[in-house]
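Dear colleague,

As promised, here are the two records you asked about, laid out in our usual form so they can be pasted straight into your sheet.

NAME FIELD: protein one
SEQUENCE, THEN STRUCTURE:
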Amino acid sequence: MFNLLNTAQPDHILPYCLIALASLLEGPMTILIAGAGISLGKLLPLPAYLAVVGGNLIADLGWYGLGLFGKLDWLERIGPKFGVHTQDVKQLEQSIQEHAPRVLFLSKLTIGLPIPTLIAIGLNRIAVKRWLLAWITGELLKSAIFMAVGYLYAASVEQAYSGLRTVLWIITIVMLVAVFVYFKVRRKKENSRNEQSSSQTESSMLWKRKKTMNQNQGSRGIVLIPAYNEERSIASVVCGILRYLPVLVVDDGSGDETAQRARLAGAMVLQFQENQGKGAALQAGFKQVLEMGYDFVITLDGDGQHDPDEIPLFLKMYAEKPYDLIIGRRDFSQMPIVRRISNTLGSKIFSWAVGKPIPDNQSGYRLISRRLLEVLRESEEDGFEFEVEMIVRCMLRRYKMKWIPIRTIYADEKSYIHPLRHVVKFMQVSLKAHRILRKAAYL
């Protein structure tokens, strides 16, 4: 680079293009050399300054773009493997969302931090307009400092670079320690605040649960939620249900705080150490419901796809006529295209298999009578197939079954169903149902 500067002409564009290109690969050293070139009269100050700033900004956009191609779910899945709790990842995501401009500006004055910061901002899909000013200001300031050092120490750029790197490493380490202490103190304050409010919240929810149970003394029902990694929505779902019935949450081996948040919201919680599948979670919950002596159970999902305010629709229908199985019927036309197709085809195939129109065979929003719960004890299914088998067993016993229209809600919920495996298993269950009902002379 020095050899190029010795032969460079200040009024030619080529040396400035080379400096901009070199800034993409090695920013700090290139900026120092540009400062030295100004001192030696080989470069003009403003074009050289704009060249290094432009090169660094283009490189930064590349790292930001890399983050845009990633997904936050990757961090949440990979983090626990390296001892980083999911809660820590979410807290870091929240902090980046809140303080992106400030964090990016400070990272510009360090070594090694701008790249992960820009990738993190890209992963969080933070709009450029939010951090544009801080980003450019940080780059302008850093480049000005480096060029000034290069200008003053033109004769010994390498020694100046070594000294400057040492200073920046010290700043970087201090910032990392400060961030670590900040998160440590913040978590301690949050834990303390949660502990202080926990007793008040639990007593309030217990009173609410008793009041709700008294209001529904005649029906003796309970709501069961099989949940897996639903910490974002479980508390609001539980609070919505407690206006009508008590709640039992079966935490199917979640890796987040689903169980803690459900318990804090006022639910009874049954926890699995490992993920066993929705069917297994429902089976364990049904066993608990039977032991507690309830007359019926309403099942719904913990991801917010089922509206707790529709519970009275099930209660009213059950009060008018004690059906053994009441299923919430969704409007397939309101679903995303892939789910619309799969649910429509699934309904058609299963209707053929059982020889009877089945409007919605996979809705998890259901009311199940006690006598059907007793029958379901015989099931060995542990996945989504358990809900399909429930319909078959109800038909075999010639129990009363009814569908009721419910809202179709879809947001950004994460599905844990593998499409190909789901299709294969569903076909197997449908054919099995056809054979069973035919053998029982139902068809």
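NAME FIELD: protein two
SEQUENCE, THEN STRUCTURE:
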Amino acid sequence: MGIQVQSVFGRKIKGLALALMAMGLSACGQSNSDAKEASAEADKGEVVVFSARKQHLIEPLFNEFTKETGIKVNFITDSPQPLLARIGASQDRVEADVFMAVDAGSLWSASNQALLEPANSEILNSRVPTEFQEPNGMWYGLSKRARTIVYSTERVKPESLSSYEQLADAEWKGRLCLRTSQKVYNQSLVGMLIEEYGEPKVKEILEGWVDNLAAPVFSSDTLLIQAIASGMCDVGIVNTYYLGQELAKNADLPVKIHWANQESNGVHVNISGAGIVKNAPHRDNAVKLLEFLVSDTAQKQFAGSNYEYPVVENIPVDPVVAKWGEFKGDKTPIAYAGENQAKAIMLMDQVGYQ
């Protein structure tokens, strides 16, 4: 009897041992599965972005890219000059994969310093209009930024406005406000005017602008818009999204947009955009990120988050932007904004445009 009990007990112990072994193998299999999934996730890697575009405008899109692809986006934000200096100083040990800028002049400068390389992407080449990409694929526009005339609805009749050059006429003496010439947005505008009219004509325009100033130049487009609203001046030139931001605070702001140069070459349209850094350590992921940013979903969010215009055609704009109506944009390749930047700065300095 005792032997039978011992045998039953032994069988129970053996069964328990087998059960524990099975559980262990199952747990081990699960652990191996989890490890494989984690390894696969890690293999998707990362992409490093040096961005002159502000964090709150890019981070939601980067998060969406990571969610869609599994590729982690690490980024830093700063003004373009320090970012380009850091890229240039680390060519023997490249840190960044993507340089993102808020102006074609900065992108041109990066390319001109041989800090970028061609993306070689059919998606980018086909979706981004040719006037908003570097001819060799060094950089691409991601959103459009129209820089045009704004005016007081209380003191200016819209039919009295026509073009950038018209603001140099005597009728606007003591009525014009401008942002500083130190800002790249104005350097790009003047650079494009040089491409259209030549340096002698643009110098005359700039002299007229300076003669017509109602106040010293402003440090920002926002302050300029507020100056028009307060009565300090009647007209000015700004990037349209700054007016969108102000209208979001006060829908009754007495300032409206006039689309410049509709009877000639069209409104100056700049871009925010990006390019692949030369010898980028995560090049494939960098290309994937730029291709994602020109997708329909990303384009709507990229432009809509800041009252800008999508660079890809037929993407709906923000309702605030839609109220401004359609306009003819300048089709001159935006790369000329960078190529003529030095000439623009020289002319503005010569006429005393600070």
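A couple of things worth noting about protein two: The beta strands are 46-51, 72-77, 98-101, 116-117, 140-152, 176-177, 235-239, 255-258, 268-277, 309-310. The longest strand covers residues 140-152.

Best,
R.
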